[in-house]
Amino acid sequence: DAKTTQPPSMDCAEGRAANLPCNHSTISGNEYVYWYRQIHSQGPQYIIHGLKNNETNEMASLIITEDRKSSTLILPHATLRDTAVYYCIVRVAGGGSNYKLTFGKGTLLTVNP
Amino acid sequence: GAVVSQHPSRVICKSGTSVKIECRSLDFQATTMFWYRQFPKKSLMLMATSNEGSKATYEQGVEKDKFLINHASLTLSTLTVTSAHPEDSSFYICSASHRDKPVYGYTFGSGTRLTVV
C-alpha cells in the first residue's frame, strides 16, 4: 500500500470548515484513498473514500488532485464532536485477508469553541 | 447497516488469567476480521487477520500462543489473551470486512479496554 503523510495536528474553530490534507505521492492507479477517524477511546469510524473523482457524503467531502498525489478531507461545518484523530489510508479496494488496513499516525483535529 | 459489536468494552483481570474478547458483525457477514491493539497515544497496530473456518494469520512479533483467535462463523470472531500480564494492558479493537461490499472498507468495533493488574 502507498504511504501517506499527514500533519500531526490541526486546529479549527467550531462552525468553520476543517480541511485536512494528505499526501500520497506514490499512490498506484488501482489504489483508493480512504479516510477514517477515531474519537478518543472508540474504534475508528469510516468517513469516505474515493478513487479519482471528488466525493461527498453526509459526513464530509473528499477532494483528490488530478494527479492523485494528494487529497483533502473537508468537514464543512466542524463541531466539537468532530475532535478526533483522522487517518488517511491508501490501498486497493477489496475485502479479505489480502486487504489489510494499515494505520499511520494520522492528524489530531481539535475543534475549538 | 454494517455494525460491529465488541464485548466487553472494559475488563480488568488479574495477572496470569485469560480474557476473551468477542467481535460480532450484527447485520452482515464478515469474510475477514482483523484484530488491532492500540497503546496510549499511539496508532492502531494490526495483530492478526482471521478468516472464517481457518487459522488466523499473525503479524510479525505477535505471539500466536498468547493471543488466540477463533473465527467460528461469518459473524463472530474471538480474541483470547492468555496468561495476561500488565504489559498486555491495552485497547483492543476488531474490524470486519463486509463480504458483499468490500470496496467500502472495514467496520470497526468500539474497542475493549483491557487492564491487567
Question: Any key phrases for this structure?
Answer:
A: 113 residues; mainly beta; 9 strands; 0% helix; B: 117 residues; 7-stranded mixed beta sheet; 11 strands
Biggest interface, chains and residue tallies: A-B, 25 and 32 residues
Unreliable stretches covering 5 or more consecutive residues of chain A: none
How many β-strand runs of chain A? 9
What does the radius of gyration of chain A come to?
Answer: 13 Å
Strands ordered across the widest β-sheet of chain A = 1-9-8-3-4
> Biggest sheet of chain B, in brief?
7 strands, mixed
Average pLDDT figure of chain B: 91
- Overall number of strands of chain B: 11
Kindly report how far apart the N and C termini of chain B lie. 37 Å
**Fraction in helix of chain B:** under 10%
- Which structural class matches the secondary elements of chain B? mainly beta
Q: What series of H and E elements makes up the topology of chain A?
A: EEEEEEEEE
Q: Extract low-pLDDT stretches of chain B.
A: none
Write down the oligomeric state: heterodimer
What characteristic shape of chain A results from the CA principal axes? globular
Main beta sheet of chain A: 5 strands, mixed
Query: Averaging pLDDT over every residue of chain A, what do you get?
Result: 92
Continuous helix count of chain A: 0
General form of chain B? globular
Protein structure class of chain A = mainly beta
Q: Helical amount among residues of chain A, as a percent range?
A: under 10%
